[in-house]
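Recap from last week: sequence in, structure out.
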Amino acid sequence: MATVARAGLRDQGLEVRATRDKLMLQEFLGSDRRFAAYAVCDLDEREFPRTRWGVAMDHGRPTAVVLEYLGLSPQPLFAMGEADAISAILRDVIKPRAAYLAGDADALVAAEPVYKVEPGPPMVRMWVDRATFRPAPGAATRLVPSDIGELNRLYDLGLTSWLPAESVAHGVYFGIRVNGRLVAAAGTHVISRDMRLAAVGNVMTHRDHRNRGFATIVTGAVTQELLRFCDETVLNVRSDNPPALAAYRSLGFREHVRFEERLVHRRGTLWDSIISPIRRIAHRRNE
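Predicted structure tokens:
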């Protein structure tokens, strides 16, 4: 059942609606597979039930897609396509109260009529394949679900954000131990064997063991394992983190695109009513 965005867009032939059409989504996202890597992987049978999708159609042709990954708020949100179409989807179909929105700069502009966008640095999407990958010297150990307690202690996660053991069981995690203690680890955010694509993430080194190359070693170990069954592997890194960028480049990762990943809150929600007066006070103080 289609939901038409507004009269002006209806006159232009644009309509927005929810969709579960995997073939259409795969074709649209495939126009920039590396940028849309997380969304592409979410088409996998294991991840797809956890997603909600909105699409804008212009005379039967998709012009924008928005993905909402369901779970605790704020949940991940990905937008790709034409700005006006993204704005219509966010206004009428995909409407979380709070989310981490990933997209290009135009997607943030498209979100602003319906969301307050928090500041933040641009992100860098990097990618590697078998031809460009260079393993790091040094050994890391494959982690298993029974290591989840150690892993969560390393990540310093509380009970409200506890990484579940199934993340290790269904993902790829490697770690380094010093004197029997896990001091560095890297893993995956999402994997799709069908799409032959995966995203590396959750890279962490204990503060007492940094600047020893451990993060590069564990990231390299995860990437090497993923490239056994994936054509490409991607990762995200903040643009204002030169050491991490250099470490990933040393493994053969190359920059694909710079994009935005921002915390957003829907206008008119309880959060908006609380935070807006605080922002106004802060703005007056800075005038």
